[in-house]
């Protein structure tokens, strides 16, 4: 690990320590507007609330914090949801994923925003950099570009005969088409003499043709990025890949437990970290001063 990364990590750990005077909270009920990702990517507010309780924040009757949850069934709903949520003027907005975060930031640059599940916050213009986010937003990311190269390497180890790998992308959920994931994927594929294929699917109907094309010739494989689209259709994508007998690797580890061939990725454990940042912001901290 580089010295700069160690310093940043130590600084982040110090920020994640519980606030002093945790019991000194206002009698006013603080409102959190929460926008989820698509369909099955719903995160559990109850887990976050459990970690908020020792910090002095309780929900339910007589509590001093509540979350208004918004779960879109289609990405087209996000601009409307974001506009309505910002108009309600909550004390804090929590967003799950890149599209939800961008939709909220299009409506406000003043209300505090905490994101999670965003793979490339700098590349998508959400923050200026990790250590000094700037503006009204901060949050958490568990992915880095080098993972894309590791996914390709693992496919090659799984089957040394692999010659083509398609990375499954939805242009709506990965708005930054020059994502560092893609650059790392293409560079690693070239070094292993593998043809990199950018396979775009705007909805699930576009997935089957991608997988069928890979299956039509030998030595093809599929790389499924960890984004809202792929999470939302996780079981369907796994089924299509298995049915066509196309080796596939998934960027979220629980995919292997639900029928996927192989998976490699971090364990998502945002609850405690989200609770600490929510606590700090509700007590007056500015998102721009809290590193990603």
At CATH level 2, the architecture of the largest domain is: 3-Layer(aba) Sandwich
As a percent range, the share of strand residues is 15-25%
Q: Can you give the mean pLDDT? A: 86
CATH superfamily caption of the largest domain: Response regulator
Q: Give the CA-based shape.
A: elongated
Tell me the name of the CATH class of the largest domain.
Alpha Beta
Radius of gyration: 20 Å
Query: Spans of 5+ residues with little confidence (pLDDT < 50)?
Result: 1-10, 19-23
Structural class from helices and strands? alpha/beta
**Largest sheet descriptor:** 5 strands, parallel
CATH topology of the largest domain: Rossmann fold
Order of helices and strands: HEHEHEHEEHEHEHEHHEEH
- Total number of distinct structural domains: 2
Please give the alpha-carbon distance between the first and last residues: 18 Å
Characteristic terms for this protein:
2 domains, disordered N terminus, 10 helices, 16% strand, 5-stranded parallel sheet, Rossmann fold, 10 strands, 292 residues
Secondary structure layout:
Elements (H helix, E strand, L loop, with lengths): L2 H13 L14 E6 L9 H8 L12 E6 L7 H10 L4 E5 L1 H8 L7 E4 L20 E3 L6 H13 L5 E6 L10 H12 L3 E6 L6 H9 L4 E5 L3 H5 L1 H10 L4 E3 L11 E2 L7 H12 L10
Parallel strand pairs: 1-2, 1-3, 3-4, 4-5, 6-7, 6-8, 8-9, 9-10
Structure in words:
By secondary structure, the protein is α/β, with parallel strands linked by helices. The protein folds into 2 domains: about 5-140 and about 270-290, Rossmann fold; about 145-265, Response regulator (Rossmann fold, 3-Layer(aba) Sandwich). The chain is built from 10 helices and 10 strands. The chain has helices at about 5-15, 45-50, 80-85, 100-105, 145-160, 180-190, 205-215, 230, 235-245, 270-280, and strands at about 30-35, 65-70, 90-95, 115, 135-140, 165-170, 195-200, 220-225, 250, 260-265. The chain has a 5-stranded parallel beta sheet with strand order 2-1-3-4-5, sandwiched between helices. Helix 2 (about 45-50) crosses helix 10 (about 270-280), helix 3 crosses helix 4 and helix 5 (about 145-160) runs parallel beside helix 6.
């Amino acid at each position: 690990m580089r010295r700069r990364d160690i310093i940043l990590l130590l600084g982040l750990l110090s920020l994640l320590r519980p606030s002093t005077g945790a019991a000194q909270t206002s009698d006013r009920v603080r409102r959190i507007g929460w926008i989820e990702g698509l369909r099955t990517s719903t995160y559990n507010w109850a887990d976050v609330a459990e970690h908020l309780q020792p910090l002095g924040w309780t929900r339910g009757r007589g509590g001093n914090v509540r979350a208004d949850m918004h779960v879109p069934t289609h990405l087209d709903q996000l601009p409307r949801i974001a506009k309505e949520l910002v108009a309600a003027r909550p004390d804090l907005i929590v967003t799950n994923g890149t599209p939800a975060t961008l939709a909220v930031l299009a409506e406000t640059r003043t209300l505090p925003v905490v994101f999670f599940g965003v793979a490339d916050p700098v590349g998508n213009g959400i923050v200026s950099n990790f250590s000094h986010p700037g503006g009204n937003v901060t949050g958490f990311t568990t992915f880095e570009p080098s993972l894309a190269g590791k996914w390709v390497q693992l496919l090659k180890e799984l089957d040394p005969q692999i010659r083509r790998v398609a990375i499954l992308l939805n242009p709506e959920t990965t708005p930054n088409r020059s994502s560092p994931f893609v650059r790392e994927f293409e560079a690693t594929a070239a070094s292993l003499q593998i043809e990199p294929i950018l396979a775009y699917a705007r909805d699930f109907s576009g997935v089957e043709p991608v997988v069928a094309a890979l299956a039509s010739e030998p030595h093809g494989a599929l790389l499924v990025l960890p984004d809202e689209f792929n999470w939302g259709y996780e079981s369907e994508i796994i089924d299509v890949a298995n049915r066509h007998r196309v080796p596939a690797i998934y960027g979220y580890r629980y995919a292997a437990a639900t029928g996927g061939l192989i998976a490699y990725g971090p364990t998502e454990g945002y609850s405690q970290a989200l609770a600490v940042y929510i606590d700090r912001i509700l007590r007056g901290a500015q998102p721009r001063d809290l590193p990603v």
